[in-house]
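Lecture notes, part 5. Sequence design as translation. It can be helpful to think of inverse folding as translation between two languages: the language of shapes and the language of residues. The source text, in structure tokens, appears below.
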């Protein structure tokens, strides 16, 4: 494939969703053809699944059911939107991908990360991101941001206990160690402009090294 697949990862309130359109705009200004998208979602079928997995009216959802639904949404999103864009030479910037499942549906939910990885490998057939940016912020600070934002809808994962979010953060630290070449961290505690600038430095360095 001719394009590059870049993913943004982090806990709740890390700011990656806010930074995404800013990254898209800057890359577009540099002359790149950019597609931004999100998970779960990005296309109609995956958005329907998103509505189910994030619905706070389903607290009884089984951990494995949740992991399988996320993987199913990911598969459809990949084949319908991401792969065609990469084949067309676009830079795809995606808000969450497989690392989220490993952190949330795997480690934080008490499932083995390798088991969740295996399920997702069936879904993605080895289609891993070229570069992942982890927005690093302490779980409590991220949750405080959410609490202070009256416009942000609270979903089922937001309502989990703080220990759950601490486990998500621990999982991301493990993934940083497991994939040091692919996953690069930015300090998400900084002001928005600085976070965006730090993320852009990582992306432009990656693009420079691979062109």
């Amino acid at each position: 494939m001719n394009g590059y697949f870049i993913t943004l990862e982090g806990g709740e309130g890390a700011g990656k969703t806010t930074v995404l359109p800013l990254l898209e705009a800057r890359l577009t200004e540099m002359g790149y053809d950019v597609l931004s998208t999100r998970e779960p979602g990005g296309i109609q079928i995956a958005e329907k699944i998103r509505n189910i997995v994030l619905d706070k009216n389903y607290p009884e959802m089984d951990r494995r059911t949740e992991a399988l639904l996320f993987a199913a949404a990911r598969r459809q999103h990949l084949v319908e939107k991401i792969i065609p864009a990469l084949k067309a030479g676009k830079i795809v910037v995606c808000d969450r991908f497989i690392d989220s499942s490993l952190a949330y549906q795997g480690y934080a939910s008490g499932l083995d990360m390798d088991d969740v990885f295996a399920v997702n490998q069936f879904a993605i057939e080895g289609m891993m991101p070229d570069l992942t940016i982890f927005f690093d912020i302490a779980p409590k600070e991220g949750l405080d941001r959410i609490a202070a934002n009256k416009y942000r809808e609270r979903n089922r994962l937001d309502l989990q206990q703080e220990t759950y979010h601490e486990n998500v953060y621990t999982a991301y630290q493990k993934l940083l160690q497991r994939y040091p070449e692919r996953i690069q961290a930015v300090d998400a505690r900084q002001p928005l402009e600085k976070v965006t600038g730090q993320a852009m430095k990582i992306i432009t360095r990656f693009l420079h090294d691979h062109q």
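The translated text above is only one of many valid answers, since several sequences can fold into similar shapes. The first strand starts at residue 4 and ends at 10.
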